[in-house]
Design the sequence.
């Protein structure tokens, strides 16, 4: 990836990859920007422009070989390996995230869960033991985890994030309803379901 590629383009690549996976599961071997566009509600011209940042993946008139394009997008997104993920917060949301089965087949596996509640520390979510945040830095550094999810109350999210960054985490998925401050080189994605609901209710008036 080169610096001049717009982040919005990078953000659409996982959407393309997901749709290619669905197409392959449906038995398709070849697709086109037109077909992808119809399924995703994105113009075919936009899809071709996005993919052109990374090279020619198809031929005019023949479309894209789905398996090949899948493989290339995985390489671009560094998903040709499995990423271990640290989850901070073992409350209702954190436990739901830990039990969610949709991460594993898309390149991510939660392997460590941390919390500061003595009642939760030592308990299990599935087969993962909840550890104290006191050992978080040591564990993350020892394993070399670079990806984390933050599922703690807003008041604790920045402190948790600072600790994760100090431990070497470079990518954070934040479920706390707060904008996190991170140094350059650390990437944060904010997931606020309530904000998305508020966005949608504007159109219901």
Sequence:
């Amino acid at each position: 990836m080169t610096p001049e590629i717009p982040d919005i383009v990078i953000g659409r690549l996982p959407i393309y990859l997901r749709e290619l996976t669905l197409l392959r599961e449906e038995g398709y071997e070849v697709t086109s920007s037109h077909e992808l566009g119809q399924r995703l509600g994105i113009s075919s011209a936009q899809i071709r422009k996005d993919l052109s940042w990374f090279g020619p993946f198809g031929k005019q008139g023949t479309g894209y070989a789905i398996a090949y394009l899948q493989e290339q997008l995985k390489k671009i997104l560094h998903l040709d390996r499995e990423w271990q993920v640290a989850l901070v917060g073992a409350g209702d949301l954190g436990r739901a995230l830990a039990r969610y089965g949709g991460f594993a087949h898309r390149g991510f596996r939660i392997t460590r869960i941390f919390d500061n509640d003595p009642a939760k520390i030592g308990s299990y979510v599935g087969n993962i033991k909840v550890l104290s945040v006191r050992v978080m830095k040591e564990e993350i550094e020892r394993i070399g985890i670079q990806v984390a999810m933050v599922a703690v109350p807003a008041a604790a999210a920045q402190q948790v994030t600072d600790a994760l960054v100090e431990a070497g985490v470079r990518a954070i998925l934040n479920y706390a309803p707060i904008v996190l401050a991170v140094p350059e080189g650390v990437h944060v994605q904010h997931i606020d379901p309530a904000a998305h609901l508020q966005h949608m209710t504007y159109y219901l008036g």
In short: The helical segments are 7-25, 33-40, 44-52, 66-76, 92-99, 136-143, 154-167, 193-201. DSSP finds eight helices and ten strands in the chain. Residues 7-25 form the longest helix (19 residues). The radius of gyration is 19 Å.
